[in-house]
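Troubleshooting: if your tokenizer reports a length mismatch, compare against these two reference records.
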Amino acid sequence: MKDIVVIGGGLSGLAAADELARNRFKVLLIEREDVLGGLARSFLYQGKWIPVTYHHVMLPDVKTVEYLKGLGLWDSMIWKTSSMSFWYEGREYLLSRPSHIFKFRPLGFRDKLRLFRFGIYCWMRKDWSGLSNIDCETWLRKKIGEEAKDILFKNLMDIKFNMPLSSISMAWLGRRLYQSVRNRDRYGYPEQGIHEMVRRLESRIIENGGGIRTSTEVTRIEDGRVTTMDSHGNINVFYGKRIVSTISPTVLLSICQVSETLARYLHNIRFKSIISMVCGSDMPLTKYYWTVMLKPHPSFGGIFNHTALNEHGSPEGKYLYYLFTYLDQNDPMFNMDEDSIRGIYLSDIRRIHPNFELRWSKVFKLKDSQPIFARDYENPPIKTDTDKLYLAGVYKEYPSPRTMDAALGSGFNTARYIVKEGV
């Protein structure tokens, strides 16, 4: 019997288990993978722990900063000033600072001026929640005009969601724009890596009496009983006075009978999956940290040059890159093997950089990666009307973008809710 069973060892689950254990609750965290971290997990290659997807820290990430300080990682943070660029019809354009707008050739002067003013507006507006029912298509057309809307934001939504602008909530996009213009071009990364942050959270949970089981899949949740099966096929049942789920709603619904009200909430939450290819090379693709492939659309939506943040991050080769694609799980590409995906990515890269060669690469396919924050999106509650069940995860932090900060904050907030309730 445990006070709390936390399902899912991503950042939300780790933050929840950590806060509960620090408040003397008997906690057990269960994770399906053999490595903790969820979307922020890492893999070991040539003696280095490398995240499976791109990650960075920004100064407005208040909760992430709090954890980095509490875990003793803040003083060793690497901070770099590196711009974001957009690839458009054979040319790379910077768009990190207001002055860059006027050098963006695809737009006329009047549209550039409107976009410049829009940037100031995004910098000043803190609260975007009132635009939850407003679609991006209509709102952006009024603010920046048809051409800028299509060239920039229509292409961005194609990359992120493969959905029309009219389906996406302006509250989500506005919140993301607010964070972007506030940070602009300053990014941080722990010198010891994201894996060290995860490892120290794990250690702190254990030091405070919490338990952690990896390589263990939850197969059923019912009346406080959590049935699991480990990688050897062994079945165990754990009992919790409360259960915190940080797994995706789709998976939760497949293993737990919930109330009709909660089921309606969770059934309406949809996700995009992501393919991430991590690779090392001796050849430069871009000197900037983040390049978005606006037009034409290759098989990947963008390139993150991790070396721009951490010059010693690559175990082989001078540069460490992330290429990513957001797509549906039933997309043919998501069901391809690693060699096929690598071949498609390489073919598209060489259309831009004909002589590009890899030193090494790993391909990861991650389901339920990006919540689709469509119009009228509603966050499910922390405490559900299903007995003993509580929720945490980035999918319930709308309109905040999916970030480490949102994940950590969600887990922490759920734990604090339980702490206030008491044993």
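Reference record two:
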Amino acid sequence: METKTLTSQQKKELADIIRNSEAKAPEIRRAQAILLVDSGTSETTIVTLTNYTRRHAWRLKRQYAAAGAEAIKDKRKGEPKPLLTRKQREAVVTTLATKKPNDMGYWGEGWTTNMLGDWIERQFNVRYKSRTSYYLLFRDARFTFHKPEKRYEKHDEAEVQAWRKRARRRLQAVWHDPTVTILTGDEMVLSTQTTTQKVWLKSGDYPIIDVAQKRENRSVYGFLDVKTGREHAWKTAWQNMYETVKILKKLRKRYPTRKLLLLWDSARWHVGSKVTEWMKTDGRIEALPFPKYSPEENPQEHIWKAGRSAVTHNRFINDIDEATNDFVRYLNRTSFSYRLLDFGDIS
């Protein structure tokens, strides 16, 4: 049964809590969540502003309707303790192992140090000064650190799972065939726009990188030999079916007698008429397209990231051709071991 809409007096009381400079942060956040859910605000906005799920906000509203402002007051007394007891640590590890953040009123499938720190402080009135203490709790729960990957809105997981079954059967049939080379292909664009990544420096030192004012691009075609980890990369000015045919001819020279099982997406420059005609004429290339909107299935995506990290990040690019040549040279001289479905090794 849903709680009735807040009265004007209740809304004023909550607004006063939010404006009160002496109110504690958790109390302000709870008051905000109650007002937002009462006004019909979307869950995305509620999460963004309060880090509470809509379900948790409704629970706060029901508690407030029953007990008034007392229901959202921070009950913690005094300064938080610096350490968890052994039993408290065990309880935290158990919670991490059995609960997800959205089970505890937070948004998301994965825990963050901020979420864990907030939950521990609310539950045990303990607050660590260093994030390392939270990292150790995650380690005790056998968690590993993962940066979320982006996924296209049109990604169809059912389609991906069906593709994996078909592709796995095909790979199994040719994996041990010495006459077949399995390749994953993709393209990327390298520009003079400076990209950055974090670096560690002595305290007081600050990195400065010049940024080019002109904007120039070059394309790179890349193919990974999944069995050997060898990369084949070429620089081009464009990505179109004519360039693709030129690159496939160069790839054929690398494997003059082999049958090629080529996995790549269905970009128009992969399925254009000129490409289709050339592959038919070659007669020894089988194309196996990746599922739509699923670049994470392609190991070549990881190679682009590795190349950028090693060659182009934190670099002022004045000469786009020189930078692209360095990028391609690095890829062609480096061995990459990435798993394609259940096949291949991870170094």
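Descriptive notes for reference record two:
- The CA atoms of residues 173 and 184 lie 17 Å apart.
- The chain has 13 helices and five strands.
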